[in-house]
Amino acid sequence: MERSTIVRVLDGLHARPATRFVKLAKSYTSDIEILRDGKAVSAKSSVKLMLMGIKEHDSLILRAVGDDAEQALSVLIAYLENPRAGLEDETSALAVQSALAVASPDSDPATAAQLPFADVAVTGIPASEGFAVGSVFAYFPDQITVSDRTIAAEDIPAEIAKLKSAVLGVQTRMQATLADAGISPADSGIIGALSEIVGDEVMCDEMIAMIKQGRDAVSAAKLTADATGLAFSRMDDVYFNTRADDVFAVGRLICLALLGKQDTGLQNVPAGAIVIAEDIGAFDLARAPLKRIKGIVCARGGATSHIAIIARAHGIPAVLGVGEAIENLRHASELALDGSKGLLFGQPSEAARQFYASKIHGAEQERSGLQRFKDYHHRRVDGTAIEVAANIGSLEEIEAAQDAGAMGVGLFRTELLFMRQKILPSEDVQFESYWKLAQAFAPNPVIIRTLDVGGDKPVAGIQFPPEENPFLGWRGIRMCLDRPDIFKIQIRALLRASISGNIKVMLPMVSDIDELRRTRALIAQCAEELDIERKPYTIFELGVMIETPAAVFIAPELAQEAAFFSIGTNDLTQYVMAADRLNSAIAHLNDASNPAVMRAITMVAKAGCDAGIMVGMCGEAAGRVDLIPEFVKMGLTEFSMSSSLILRAKKCLSEIVG
Ligand code: PEP
Ligand code: MG
Fold it and tell me: β-strands 564-567, 541-546: how paired?
């Protein structure tokens, strides 16, 4: 029996909707297939279904054979035709998506030179902030290799039985872990996603088919998982790209079970140790005695990997992506680690140990003392609210921002969405991120910054010309206006997400009022297109970042046309002072408290206040407690900063405005 339908699920069968759909399909005994463009896959395989990349408005045929075929088709079709299918339970999807987190781009570049000791630093990617000093626990499990040997025909049934029992064993272990009352919601989301993949019958059938062709079970499991993982990594969807890591991890777990081994080493981590590894599987790390682990260092991985997410969720400082330096580090007996700057010191000197010990102590003391300011709401004597918001670059940082008491988001750096995958994110992928961000902070505002990339921050899919001075070059709004094909996709996603009611948008690197006007024209064009397509949208408030001297000088004119200002002191300081923000040799000039920069900020504040628009700040200076009182006097009413600075800023504000 067959029935055709058009998918109405908002944004298609991604993530949660796909998983839910498969669960529904599995509740029927009939064989059920989905057909699109002549290609059929089992409706009971989440892996295959996700790889199909089914989008909203796709035409599909559902085919079912079996006793409950009719009922199954009606229920599944109703599901596919429900726009909100699978979206009701966002929490676990978010937990799994936390795999996409990125490091705070606010961390200073690793500048070991400024430290009060002479140890030589190894640098890596700052993936989870905090400091640690501890003994090294080297975790280098065996590599799994694919064998060329062919097994004899009579051994095939036994090999298949071995595979099945290994899969079952992994599944059982995962279920036991999930049933453990102590597991955190984020870890349970990640392990839940892995266990879906282990239980995928179609993937298992592919392994069995390989064994029937003469492959041994280990090779069949590894080859199948590697091929499936690769297919996920090539999809145009951040969520599915992350599933690649899950599939590789599952392949490894099955292989280890077949070999009678386990990556159990982590169970033996002594209290207070820093784990050093080539890479750590999410499942292994989530089950490890995390309370005993004081730090994590890996050769591979970046701020977007599962390890980084788990580390951040558990407050474990981590430095990832250190590459070949891991070889030396693994042989050190002790290590000092700065997860905020991505610095590592093998065999630290007494001076380095003491430096970090006092940092750790200071951080603990400060954290507990500041908690009472978390829910403070500040008002000036005239009743105007002063907002303290967070600068974030990914959805996974939402929790930390909320924990710190952020009242909204003052800067969402969208470029990280573009930089972490191999292709440009589609309108739907962007829409989903902006929508979730807005939902998380509603009704408080979230200010989303349009793409701010340039020659120094390349993005796959955008060809940047070689430039002598990338910081003065084709970047931010300049690049976007030259590439409406890219910019309009972002604007459309923002317009659609703005029906949430709390999204504001701002433009980076504005230096000419025409840039604001041309953007408005593009917004109007996108709105017209959405009208024709009958897609709901809302026109958002459009503000500008003040981060070029040109914008400072034309602030009075800009204030007539912009809905708000947000002062980006990181760039403003480097451009006012003509001092590269990444060059530590001139760090003394790169200081927002320099009178030249402070005067520029005063001019901007006056222009904004005179025009009656909100003036906020989202550069690092917004979190400087030595400057906040000055900024409040100038008339700034919004301060947005890295989450780790929020409590300190709230305390400072409570002292000056109450
Ligand atoms: C700034 O320049 O102050 C700013 C907030 O933007 P970014 O640091 O992302 O350049
Ligand atoms: Mg900037």
Answer: parallel
Amino acid at position 482, single letter: D
Question: SS3 for 165?
Answer: helix
Active-site annotation holder among 14, 306, 314, 378: 306
Mean pLDDT of the chain: 87
pLDDT of residue 234: 80
298 tagged catalytic: no
The answer to whether the bond into 443 is cis (omega within 30° of 0) is yes
Question: Which residues hold their Cβ within 5 A of ligand 2, which is an ion?
Answer: 547, 568, 571
Determine the pLDDT at residue 397.
77
Cα 439 to middle of ligand 2, angstroms: 26
- HSE (CB half, 13 Å, CA atoms) of 19? 21
Dihedral of CA atoms 40, 42, 43, 45 in degrees, nearest 10, equals: -130
Q: Which residues pair with 64 in a beta bridge?
A: 32
Which amino acid appears at position 179 of this protein?
A
* The pLDDT of residue 335 is above 90: yes
Residue 629, pLDDT score: 96
Q: Which helix (H) or strand (E) holds 4?
A: strand 2-6
Q: What percent of the chain has pLDDT over 90?
A: 54
Per-residue model confidence as pLDDT tens digits over 444-453: 999 999 999 8
Per-residue confidence (pLDDT) for residue 645, from 0 to 100: 82
**Which atom of ligand 1 is nearest to 567's Cα?**
3
More confident: 303 or 352:
352
Helix, strand, coil shares, percent, the chain, to 5: 50, 15, 35
The continuous run of DSSP H or E covering 638 comes out as strand 638-641
Q: Which atom of ligand 1 is nearest to the CA of 413?
A: 9
- Say how many Å lie between the CA of residue 116 and the centre of ligand 1: 28
Instruction: Please say if the pLDDT value at position 100 is more than 70.
Output: no
Is 652 labeled as catalytic in the residue annotation? no
Query: Is 141 near ligand 1, meaning CB less than 6 Å away?
Result: no
| Ligand 1 pocket check for 569: Cβ under 6 Å | yes
Q: Taking the CA atoms of 48, 94, 431 and 558 in sequence, report the sign of the dihedral they define.
A: negative
268-288 mean pLDDT: 85
3-state SS of 566-616 is: EECHHHHHHHHHCCCCCCHHHCCCCCCCCHHHHHHHHHHHHHHHHHCCEEE
- Spatial CB neighbours of 316, under 8 Å, sequence gap ≥ 6: 128, 130, 290, 293, 294, 295, 296, 310
Residue 62: strand, helix, or coil: strand
| CB of residue 619 inside a 6 A radius of ligand 1 | yes
Task: State yes or no: pLDDT of 102 exceeds 50.
Answer: no
Ligand nearest to the CA of 510: 2
